[in-house]
Amino acid sequence: GLTVIGFKMAGKKPDHEHPYGHERSESISGLLISIVIMFVGLQFVKSSLDKIISPSALRLSTTVYIILVISIILKLAQVYFYRLIGKTIDSPTLIATAKDSLNDVFTTIAVLLSAIIQASTGWHLDGWVGLGVAIYILFSAASLIKTFINDLLGHQPGHELVERMDALLQTYDDILGFHDLLIHQYGPNMIFASVHVEFDSNWTLNQAHHVTDKIEHDFWHQAQIHLVCHIDPIDINNQKYAKIYEAVQAVIKHYELGLTTHDFHVEELVNGDKLIQFDVVVPEHITTSDDELLVSINHDLRKILGQVTAEITFDHNYIGDDHSLI
């Protein structure tokens, strides 16, 4: 029931109140299924402990054995079907339903094994076997709950998606580079993204706009991604500030924190001082605060260049340290 409701809600088209669609409804239904699985696991723990404390005879007829084996086979087929379809259409709800069916398989196997062992040896192990299965079910449910909560809160995009976007952006010879990629997913098939695209500053705005329009068009038609491009002009022929740029790179490299820079600009102030503007990408493992980095970088640059001021925008890597698209 929850699976069907989730599918129906997720399939609704975007509307005035939900312009980004309803695909996260699947994550909500998947979360509810996971909570049900957790409840079943807790109930199984209780019944297993009761059997451990007060063992009872477990006698099954040949007919029941046959029914249990057939049930296991059918449930395994169901697991395979749900997983196959779930991965094919990228449905978290079906994958959760597959986990639920797999838990049923383990529960049935536990009953079957306990009955066989008891019939062969007289040992009453059904409570202990059931407890082991119950613990597995609880861990399985906890993992699913964490996955669906992450989907609802928003998480880092998958490596495959980022690499696909990187490969497509690399195909445009008219751009000098790209950075500051942000990706927002409102379900597996509703992806919005933005990226800063670098152009030669000698280009006209119309020229750059024509290229970014093409990029946005291609991303939608080739990858079904709603992409918005920001134009960044880069003065590639200005040697006047080469020394300043080299000093910035030397300071950043000296910290050995894995910092990188982009959007480098220099502005001559009225009093003759220079205002250096650039972005610094901070890997997610760095614990130093932005304010501490700002003070330290300004201090080190003034030791090399004299009276300069660095105005820095700190970018935090929201797509993972193994990607360079930020």
UniProtKB/TrEMBL annotation:
NCBIfam families (alphabetical): CDF (TIGR01297)
Molecular function as annotated in GO: monoatomic cation transmembrane transporter activity
Source organism (scientific name): Lapidilactobacillus dextrinicus
Gene Ontology CC annotations of this record: membrane
UniProt-listed InterPro entries: Cation_efflux, Cation_efflux_CTD, Cation_efflux_CTD_sf, Cation_efflux_TM, Cation_efflux_TMD_sf, CDF_Transporter
Membrane topology: Multi-pass membrane protein
Name of this chain's protein: Cation diffusion facilitator family transporter
Keywords: Membrane, Transmembrane, Transmembrane helix, Transport
Transmembrane residue ranges: 28-45, 65-85, 105-123, 129-149
Cell compartments where the protein resides: Membrane
Stretches assigned to the Cation efflux protein transmembrane domain: 2-153
UniProt domain Cation efflux protein cytoplasmic: residue ranges: 158-233
Membership in a protein family: Belongs to the cation diffusion facilitator (CDF) transporter (TC 2.A.4) family.
